[in-house]
């Protein structure tokens, strides 16, 4: 099952400095097991462009749609057996302690 894992900042990161996971090891392990299909960092939210169409008119705004201190800073596309496995993969990611991770399954459009 495929999951999009959004990597986000958090205004309340874990302050315990022990056993901080290494991102390079996390990537290598999950790539080698076929659980991480791709992933990357994103440019700062200040580089975002928001697109909307209202009443047939294109509205283009510089910057993110919402003003917030917690922003998406990256993503990983995971292929896991189920949600439990995806949670275990996310648990070992460094941003589980320094930020937050949102797991979202892809929609089943065949139904």
TrEMBL record:
Name of the protein in question: YCII-related domain-containing protein
Gene3D superfamilies registered for this protein in UniProt: Dimeric alpha+beta barrel
Species name: Micromonospora arborensis
Recorded superkingdom: Bacteria
Domain YCII-related: residue ranges: 14-105
Pfam hit, one: YCII
SUPFAM superfamilies named among the record's database cross-references: Dimeric alpha+beta barrel
Family, per entry: Belongs to the YciI family.
Coiled-coil features, chain-numbered ranges: none
